[in-house]
Amino acid sequence: MTSSELSLRLARPAEAATIANLSRDLIEYGLRWRWTPIRVAACIRAPNVNVLVACVRENIAGFSIMRYGDNDAHLDLLAVAPTYRRAGVGRRLLEWLEKCAVIAGIFNVALEVRAGNQGAQLFYKRMGYRTIAHLPGYYQGIEAALRMGRDLSCRPLDHGIQRIQFNLSGFGVLYLATRSLSPDR
After folding, report:
1. Nearest CA to 180 among 153, 158, 162, 156?
2. 95-105 burial, b for 16+ CB within 10 Å, e for fewer?
Protein backbone atom coordinates (compact mmCIF):
# COMPACT_ATOMS: atom_id res chain seq x y z
CA MET A 1 0.00 0.00 0.00
CA THR A 2 1.28 3.43 -0.89
CA SER A 3 0.34 6.58 0.99
CA SER A 4 -1.55 7.79 -2.09
CA GLU A 5 -3.83 4.74 -1.85
CA LEU A 6 -4.85 5.65 1.71
CA SER A 7 -7.63 8.17 2.23
CA LEU A 8 -9.27 9.41 5.41
CA ARG A 9 -12.88 10.55 5.66
CA LEU A 10 -15.74 10.75 8.09
CA ALA A 11 -17.74 7.56 8.32
CA ARG A 12 -21.10 7.24 6.61
CA PRO A 13 -24.17 5.92 8.46
CA ALA A 14 -24.23 2.86 6.20
CA GLU A 15 -20.75 1.91 7.51
CA ALA A 16 -21.83 1.61 11.15
CA ALA A 17 -22.18 -2.19 10.98
CA THR A 18 -18.76 -2.63 9.36
CA ILE A 19 -17.10 -0.42 11.99
CA ALA A 20 -18.95 -2.21 14.82
CA ASN A 21 -17.86 -5.60 13.49
CA LEU A 22 -14.25 -4.42 13.28
CA SER A 23 -14.50 -3.20 16.87
CA ARG A 24 -15.89 -6.56 17.99
CA ASP A 25 -13.16 -8.51 16.20
CA LEU A 26 -10.13 -6.24 16.74
CA ILE A 27 -10.81 -4.47 20.04
CA GLU A 28 -13.59 -6.17 22.02
CA TYR A 29 -12.55 -9.81 21.54
CA GLY A 30 -13.18 -11.82 24.71
CA LEU A 31 -15.61 -9.19 26.03
CA ARG A 32 -19.34 -8.54 25.66
CA TRP A 33 -19.90 -6.61 22.46
CA ARG A 34 -20.68 -3.01 23.42
CA TRP A 35 -19.83 -1.02 20.29
CA THR A 36 -22.81 -2.34 18.33
CA PRO A 37 -23.99 -0.94 14.99
CA ILE A 38 -26.64 1.13 16.81
CA ARG A 39 -24.04 2.70 19.12
CA VAL A 40 -21.61 3.42 16.27
CA ALA A 41 -24.44 4.93 14.18
CA ALA A 42 -25.31 7.21 17.11
CA CYS A 43 -21.68 8.36 17.22
CA ILE A 44 -21.68 9.04 13.48
CA ARG A 45 -24.72 11.31 13.98
CA ALA A 46 -23.46 13.01 17.16
CA PRO A 47 -22.24 16.60 16.70
CA ASN A 48 -19.39 16.25 19.23
CA VAL A 49 -17.96 12.98 17.87
CA ASN A 50 -15.80 12.20 14.85
CA VAL A 51 -15.99 8.70 13.46
CA LEU A 52 -13.13 8.51 11.00
CA VAL A 53 -12.34 5.75 8.53
CA ALA A 54 -9.12 5.04 6.67
CA CYS A 55 -9.82 3.53 3.27
CA VAL A 56 -7.64 1.72 0.78
CA ARG A 57 -9.41 1.28 -2.54
CA GLU A 58 -12.82 1.72 -0.85
CA ASN A 59 -12.01 -0.96 1.77
CA ILE A 60 -11.98 0.19 5.39
CA ALA A 61 -8.42 -0.41 6.60
CA GLY A 62 -8.98 1.20 9.99
CA PHE A 63 -11.25 3.46 11.97
CA SER A 64 -11.29 5.68 15.03
CA ILE A 65 -13.88 7.36 17.21
CA MET A 66 -13.11 10.48 19.24
CA ARG A 67 -15.48 12.46 21.48
CA TYR A 68 -14.82 16.14 22.02
CA GLY A 69 -15.81 17.97 25.21
CA ASP A 70 -15.37 21.58 26.23
CA ASN A 71 -11.85 21.12 27.58
CA ASP A 72 -10.75 17.62 26.62
CA ALA A 73 -11.21 14.86 24.08
CA HIS A 74 -11.48 11.11 24.54
CA LEU A 75 -10.34 8.53 22.02
CA ASP A 76 -13.00 5.85 22.38
CA LEU A 77 -11.75 3.43 19.72
CA LEU A 78 -8.95 3.07 17.22
CA ALA A 79 -8.25 -0.08 15.24
CA VAL A 80 -6.37 -1.01 12.11
CA ALA A 81 -7.02 -4.24 10.22
CA PRO A 82 -4.04 -6.63 10.56
CA THR A 83 -3.22 -6.40 6.84
CA TYR A 84 -2.61 -2.65 7.12
CA ARG A 85 -0.78 -2.45 10.44
CA ARG A 86 2.66 -0.82 10.63
CA ALA A 87 1.91 1.11 7.45
CA GLY A 88 1.06 4.45 9.08
CA VAL A 89 -2.72 4.02 9.09
CA GLY A 90 -3.12 4.33 12.87
CA ARG A 91 -0.80 7.33 12.99
CA ARG A 92 -2.74 9.11 10.25
CA LEU A 93 -6.08 8.43 11.97
CA LEU A 94 -4.85 9.71 15.33
CA GLU A 95 -3.10 12.79 13.92
CA TRP A 96 -6.27 13.78 12.02
CA LEU A 97 -8.38 13.56 15.18
CA GLU A 98 -5.77 15.42 17.25
CA LYS A 99 -5.72 18.25 14.69
CA CYS A 100 -9.50 18.57 15.02
CA ALA A 101 -9.09 18.85 18.79
CA VAL A 102 -6.45 21.56 18.50
CA ILE A 103 -8.55 23.52 16.01
CA ALA A 104 -11.41 23.36 18.54
CA GLY A 105 -9.08 24.66 21.27
CA ILE A 106 -8.88 21.29 23.03
CA PHE A 107 -5.40 20.25 24.12
CA ASN A 108 -5.95 17.25 26.39
CA VAL A 109 -6.72 13.80 25.01
CA ALA A 110 -7.30 10.66 27.06
CA LEU A 111 -7.83 7.02 26.13
CA GLU A 112 -7.90 3.58 27.70
CA VAL A 113 -6.02 0.59 26.38
CA ARG A 114 -5.98 -3.02 27.51
CA ALA A 115 -3.21 -3.60 30.03
CA GLY A 116 -2.13 -6.68 28.06
CA ASN A 117 -2.01 -4.96 24.67
CA GLN A 118 1.68 -4.11 24.51
CA GLY A 119 1.57 -3.24 20.80
CA ALA A 120 -1.12 -0.59 21.26
CA GLN A 121 0.64 0.82 24.32
CA LEU A 122 3.88 1.19 22.37
CA PHE A 123 2.03 2.86 19.50
CA TYR A 124 0.46 5.42 21.83
CA LYS A 125 3.78 6.07 23.58
CA ARG A 126 5.38 6.76 20.21
CA MET A 127 2.53 9.16 19.49
CA GLY A 128 3.35 11.13 22.64
CA TYR A 129 0.91 9.58 25.13
CA ARG A 130 1.92 8.68 28.65
CA THR A 131 0.37 6.36 31.20
CA ILE A 132 -1.73 8.23 33.76
CA ALA A 133 -3.37 5.39 35.70
CA HIS A 134 -3.78 1.64 35.98
CA LEU A 135 -7.47 0.68 36.12
CA PRO A 136 -8.06 -2.87 37.46
CA GLY A 137 -11.14 -4.61 36.01
CA TYR A 138 -11.90 -1.69 33.70
CA TYR A 139 -13.08 -3.91 30.88
CA GLN A 140 -16.28 -5.50 32.23
CA GLY A 141 -14.49 -6.67 35.36
CA ILE A 142 -12.43 -9.04 33.20
CA GLU A 143 -9.34 -7.10 32.24
CA ALA A 144 -7.36 -4.11 33.47
CA ALA A 145 -6.73 -1.01 31.41
CA LEU A 146 -4.15 1.72 31.31
CA ARG A 147 -5.46 5.25 31.02
CA MET A 148 -3.14 7.25 28.82
CA GLY A 149 -3.16 10.91 27.98
CA ARG A 150 -1.47 13.54 25.93
CA ASP A 151 -1.16 17.29 26.14
CA LEU A 152 -1.48 18.45 22.53
CA SER A 153 0.09 21.80 23.34
CA CYS A 154 3.42 19.95 23.75
CA ARG A 155 5.47 18.79 20.81
CA PRO A 156 5.02 15.09 19.98
CA LEU A 157 7.75 12.76 21.20
CA ASP A 158 8.18 10.59 18.13
CA HIS A 159 6.20 11.66 15.10
CA GLY A 160 9.15 11.51 12.72
CA ILE A 161 9.28 15.29 12.47
CA GLN A 162 12.71 16.72 11.89
CA ARG A 163 13.59 20.36 12.24
CA ILE A 164 16.00 21.80 9.69
CA GLN A 165 17.68 25.15 10.22
CA PHE A 166 18.77 27.41 7.36
CA ASN A 167 20.92 30.46 8.02
CA LEU A 168 19.87 33.19 5.61
CA SER A 169 22.71 35.65 5.57
CA GLY A 170 21.39 39.06 6.54
CA PHE A 171 17.82 37.79 6.94
CA GLY A 172 17.97 35.63 10.07
CA VAL A 173 17.24 31.95 10.52
CA LEU A 174 14.53 29.91 8.80
CA TYR A 175 13.26 26.73 10.46
CA LEU A 176 11.45 24.06 8.46
CA ALA A 177 9.70 21.00 9.87
CA THR A 178 9.87 17.94 7.65
CA ARG A 179 8.39 14.51 8.13
CA SER A 180 10.52 11.41 8.09
CA LEU A 181 9.47 8.86 5.49
CA SER A 182 10.11 5.91 7.78
CA PRO A 183 7.97 2.94 6.60
CA ASP A 184 6.88 1.93 10.11
CA ARG A 185 4.95 5.13 10.73
Report:
1. 162
2. ebbbeebeeee
Query: Strand runs (DSSP E) across the chain, as ranges?
Result: 6-10, 49-56, 59-68, 72-80, 108-114, 130-139, 143-151, 161-168, 172-179
As a whole number of angstroms, the distance between CA 24 and CA 33 comes to 6
Nearest to 54 by CA among 80, 76, 36: 80
pLDDT band at 182 (very low <50, low <70, confident <90, very high): very low
Q: pLDDT tier at 157 (50, 70, 90 boundaries)?
A: very low
Does residue 88 sit in helix, strand or coil? coil
Q: Is the pTM value of this prediction over 0.85?
A: no
* Phi, psi (rounded to 5 degrees) for 69: -105, -165
Domain boundaries, the chain: 3-159
- Specify burial of residue 81 (Cβ count, 10 A radius: 0-12, 13-18, 19+): middle
- Topology of domain 3-159, per CATH? Aminopeptidase (3.40.630)
Mean pLDDT of the chain: 87
At 164, the amino acid letter reads: I
CB 108 within 8 A of CB 149: yes
Residue 42 corresponds to which amino acid? A
In this structure, what DSSP letter does residue 182 have? -
